[in-house]
Amino acid sequence: MTEMNEPAAELIAEADAATDRLKAVKESIGRVIYGLENEVELCLTAMLSGGHTLLVGAPGLAKTRLVETIAVATGIDTKRIQFTPDLMPADILGSEILEESDDGKRHFRFMPGPIFCRLLMADEINRASPRTQAALLQAMQEGHVTIAGERHDLPKPFHVLATQNPIEQEGTYPLPEAQLDRFLLRVDIPYPTREAERAVLLATTGANTAESVSVLDAAEILKLQALVRRLPVGERVLESILDLLRLARPEESDVDAVREGVSWGPGPRAGQALMLACRARALLQGRLAPSTEDVAALAEPVLKHRMALSFAARADGHTLEGLIKSLADRAA
């Protein structure tokens, strides 16, 4: 066995230590959130990748509780915005107010909005008007906002965890494709299994309720995000990602269901999301490098909000979930 060079040995040691820390984070979240191990892992995957997450699920499935618990376990400050039709961009970003000093001089002072935090919970994001939704675009992509021509940087790390109710659509504004593409992953929150629901009932209706504990902090999260980008990606995994993207695009695909039933396919940002998310998932599971299994597991969370079926395809009974699974199996 050849002796390992120092940089590789350092990377392995750093990855092992990070895996132990992340295991403690998952255990802390698991004290409060039951039966959502896969969904918790996806949220942490997006955070380690430096991206944002869209949580989609019916009311009462602990979406808000999940975000609050992740904030506690990761040790970063959080703020919540309840999106409503009358919410204005200034309610999110902040605004300038005119003040008068003791000597009679007037000047503008910037009052930061709730977006100036490290973890922003955008509750029912599709209830706000398109103008207000667009106020998040620059912040989510560039990490700063511009008010009255002045740039204001957001704290690092900065993550948006947005929730959306797929059932009640009255009075909502569907998220535009440009904003959907800003979310690294879409995580669908399912109804709990019988065993998980039993645990929820016992844990939440008694005199004492469990609480998560803080494990990480902002500085440690930034180090973990830097570590994720240093993890190696094999040529086979890279080719699997490229194959999947091309199979999902109607202009390039040789799959009839895609060419005839998909209105638009994923762009290069989807490939970037897959590369980072595969690395992050491998680290969460204690592996130094991702595999094609990671590509298959993350295909739906990465692609589902970056593709759209035509009306004819939906009428014929096709679903994005089934189509993406078949494409991922072929690309693996």
Q: For the largest beta sheet, what order do the strands appear in spatially?
A: 2-5-8-1-9
In whole angstroms, the N-to-C terminal distance is 31 Å
The average pLDDT is 89
Number of helices: 14
Strand content: 15-25%
CATH superfamily of the largest domain: P-loop containing nucleotide triphosphate hydrolases
Largest sheet composition: 5 strands, parallel
Give the total of domains: 2
Work out the oligomeric state of the chains in this entry. single chain
Morphology: globular
- Integer-rounded radius of gyration: 21 Å
Specify the structural class. Answer: alpha/beta
Describe the structure.
GO terms for molecular function: ATP binding; ATP hydrolysis activity. InterPro entries: ATPase_AAA-3, CbbQ/NirQ/NorQ/GpvN, ChlI/MoxR_AAA_lid, P-loop_NTPase. Pfam families: AAA_3, AAA_lid_2. This protein is α/β, with parallel strands linked by helices. The protein has two domains: 217 residues, Rossmann fold (3-Layer(aba) Sandwich), CATH 3.40.50; 102 residues, Magnesium chelatase subunit I, C-Terminal domain (Helicase, Ruva Protein, domain 3, Orthogonal Bundle), CATH 1.10.8. It contains 14 helices and eleven strands. A five-stranded parallel β-sheet has the order 2-5-8-1-9. Strand 3 and strand 4 form a beta hairpin. It is globular, with a radius of gyration of 21 Å. The N terminus is likely disordered.
Blueprint of the fold:
Blueprint: H1 6-30, H2 37-48, E1 52-56, H3 63-74, E2 78-82, H4 89-93, E3 94-100, E4 106-112, E5 119-123, H5 130-142, E6 144-147, E7 150-153, E8 159-164, H6 177-180, E9 183-188, H7 194-204, H8 218-230, H9 235-248, H10 256-261, E10 262-264, H11 268-284, H12 292-303, E11 308-309, H13 311-315, H14 320-331
Parallel strand pairs: 1-8, 1-9, 2-5, 5-8
Antiparallel strand pairs: 3-4, 6-7, 10-11
Helix pairs in contact: 1-3, 2-11, 9-11, 9-14, 11-12, 12-14
